[in-house]
Design goal:
Blueprint (H helix, E strand, L loop, with lengths): L1 H10 L1 H15 L10 H13 L2 H33 L1 H14 L8 H8 L3 H25 L3 H9 L4 H35 L8 H7 L6 H29 L7
Length: 252
């Protein structure tokens, strides 16, 4: 009996039930325009699914997230490795990194519209910007956390600096690099709302942003929950892939 209760609590079912109860009770004191209840929200989701709007928005947003995230990872990992391993590179680039990582992506919306236009490039650039900082910072931290005795042992055995970098430093940093990649994915999904404010005509962020024009508060809730439902399985899939293919590097 006790184990059964523990399993129910562990799976999170109680948390969601409590959330739905609190949400439903709270909605009784307001109109649907201000706080729609679960039933109204689910009905709105059903309508959006039936006419294909939600499916199309999900597909478009996923495409944008994956493009910006992949470009960010491809850029940030090697740059982070260089900053973490080569002092002179760090002296030059870290001031920029430590300054711009405190500037939110949404602050660049107007500039990116001017620089990249109203098409997909500006949205990709905004997501790319949101991704590179967590990936880069974790990569740098992973490199600098490598046990110096491993480097010295390799050097004493005659390994060159290049060999040490590719066989000791980079592999040892993989767990933290992977953590940065996961954080970058969450950052990309969070940023999609801001990215789709850039003259978009479809996507989850567009759905959330334009819902205010029609006083469709239930659509806002649908968009918010959809982002969460997309993000959680995406992170689980990424974690599963990391554990399967990067296990020997210490990814757990």
């Amino acid at each position: 009996m006790k184990n059964g209760i523990n399993q129910i609590l562990k799976c999170g079912a109680v948390t969601w039930i409590l959330l739905l109860v609190v949400w439903q009770v709270g909605s009784l004191f307001y109109t649907d325009d201000f706080l729609p209840g679960p039933a109204a929200t689910f009905a709105g989701a059903g309508a959006l699914i039936e006419d294909g709007t939600l499916g199309m928005d999900i597909a478009v947003s996923l495409q944008r997230v994956l493009r910006g995230w992949l470009l960010g990872v491809i850029f940030a990992v090697p740059v982070g490795l260089c900053i973490g391993n080569f002092k002179k590179v760090g002296w030059v680039l870290e001031p920029f990194l430590n300054f711009f990582r405190f500037v939110p992506a949404i602050g660049f919306i107007t500039l990116f519209l001017m620089w990249f236009g109203v098409g997909e490039n500006s949205k990709t650039a905004l997501i790319f910007y949101a991704v590179i900082f967590p990936v880069m910072i974790n990569t740098i931290a992973g490199v600098r956390a490598v046990d110096p005795s491993l480097v010295e042992a390799s050097r004493s055995l005659g390994a060159s600096g290049r060999t040490i970098f590719f066989t000791v430093i980079a592999p040892s940093a993989v767990p933290q690099i992977f953590t940065g990649i996961r954080l970058g994915l969450s950052g990309a999904i969070i940023c999609i709302v801001a990215a789709e404010m850039l003259a978009a005509s479809e996507g989850i962020g567009y759905l959330i942003y334009t819902s205010r024009l029609y006083y469709k508060t239930d659509w806002i809730f649908i968009g918010i929950f959809t982002l969460g439902f997309l993000g959680f399985p995406a992170d689980r899939i990424l974690l599963f892939a990391g554990q399967k293919f990067l296990y020997r590097f210490g990814v757990r």
